[in-house]
Each structure stands twice: as structure tokens, then as C-alpha cells.
Amino acid sequence: MTEVLRYAAFTADGTGGNPAGVVLDATGLTEDQMLALAAEVGYSETAFVLPGSGDSHPIRYFSPRAEVAFCGHATIATAVALADRDGCGPLRFDTPAGPVAVLTEATTTGVTATLTSPPASSRPATAAEIDALLAPFGWRREQLDETWPVHVAFAGNAHPVLAVAARETLADFDYDFDALAAVMADAGWATVHVFRQRGPAEFDVRNAFPPGGVREDPATGAAAAAFGGYLRTLGRLTVGNRVVLHQGEDMGQPSRLVVAPDPDSDGVQVTGTGAPIPA
């Protein structure tokens, strides 16, 4: 019987966060079995740790519908689960998107994990891509914040990044699920990252996730890493600085993600706390 742990990642003050399934021993499981388990768990992603050596762990991620190359919140959840079992320290996850270093630390608020994403980059979206993105939301270009260009950002997966001008637009976040799913399938996008700047180094964010069969994620580590790449490309996030993303508040699942550029690579660091979900 395969043991599936349930952890919340990127919790805010011990509450909220994004739930993930975690299988710490996926030895012998086939892809079909992993997908079936992910569907049974029903979270946006479940992580499966495969046999490795030392602190290096091959890992795969499955949504209820398909395999995902990289998932930030499931990485944080898995790292915290391993820290709970083995103690805190450095880890390395060998993901389908490339190696991901993670450091877990014990703090007064629980175990914190910091992942360093695969190389992050960002490019301007085309006019056609912007039109295709706005249509399922029913938004007009005038509702976007023109001081933040629309980009497609990447950090293991591709995520379009849209800034809205009004907090009310973010609060009313809704879209045609099937229409957006079709657009994203054609483009190969993982989530749509919608944000509004809250302060000099703080952002309110929401993420649409039709490819995973989920309308919205309450905390999206992979998109946060891609967003860090976007900010770095625009010159708005430099080494030594960090930003805080507030996600899930409009869903009643408040989450907190801290994003900083990695000083030693093209990756982006994403930090959050994690905790087991009570049965």
C-alpha cells in the first residue's frame, strides 16, 4: 500500500497554503499508477520521490490530469516532509525540468524551505497571445496596468504574466474554463499568473490552472519563480532584494511566497513554510 502524505505549502502564519500530495517512496510505481494516485488525492499536484542516493532525490509531479515538469508548491511540501522525517538541511531534487536545490530550516514558525528553480527567463507576449489570454477572462486591454508589460515567463514551465490596473479586477477573477484551457494547451502554458502591485516589494497574485483541472491555485511556486524571472528581466528585482507574493487570499486560503534572484545561477529562489494537513 503506497503511503500518501498531505502537506500544505506556503502557509501564511500557520494557515492556508496550497495542499499537495507527497509520496516519499514511489519505488516501482508506473506512470499510470502515479497519475491514478494523483487523481485519487485530488490536489492540483502530487509529488513522487523515486530512489536516489544521499540527499539527491529523483522526483516526478502529477496533476489529476497529467504529468507536470516542475511544481513549486509540491517541491516545498516534499522538502518539508523529508525534513520532518530526516531533519533539516540541503536537498537536491532531480526533476524533469532539471535539478532543483532546496534548503530546509527549522524556524520559530515551523519548517521553511527555499527552492532554487531551473533557469528563469521572460519574453514579451505577442499581440495575438495577449488577445487570446484576455478573451476567456472577458477583459479589455484598458483593464491592464500598462506600466507592467505582458510577458510569457519561464522557470521550468511557461507562465503568461498579466498585471491588472485595479484590485477589483483581481478580486473578480473569473474566466471561461474550457476556452482558457484550449488557449493554454495550444501554447503549452502551465498557469496564467495575474497580479497587482500592493507595495514597493509586495504583490497580490492569482493563478489560473486549467491544465491541471483546477480553476485556481492558492499558491503556485513554479509561477512565483517564473514571476521572479520576469521581474529580473525588467530590472525590478536584483540580487540582494526580494519580493513577497500574497496569493490565495481571495479564495480563503492565504498563502505567502518570498521570491529572490539566486546569486549563483539564472534560477530564482522561492521560500515558504509547510506543514502536514491534519487528517
From TrEMBL:
The keyword Isomerase applies. Residues 260-279 are annotated as: Disordered. It comes from the Bacteria. One of its GO terms (molecular function) is isomerase activity. Pfam families: PhzC-PhzF (PF02567). Keywords: Isomerase. The keyword rRNA processing does not apply. Belongs to the PhzF family. This is PhzF family phenazine biosynthesis isomerase.
